[in-house]
Amino acid sequence: MVIQQAIDVLKRGGLVAFPTDTLYALGADALSPEAVDRVLAVKGRNRGKPVSVLVPSVDVARSLAAETTEHVWTMAAACWPGALTIVVRASTKLPRVLSGAGTIGLRLPGGNVAAAVLNALNGPVIGTSANKSGGPDPADAKTVQRAIGGLIDLILDGGRVTLGVPSTVLDCTQTPARILREGAVARTRLSGLIAVA
Question: Could you give the domains of the chain?
Answer without folding.
Answer: 2-195 (3.90.870.10)
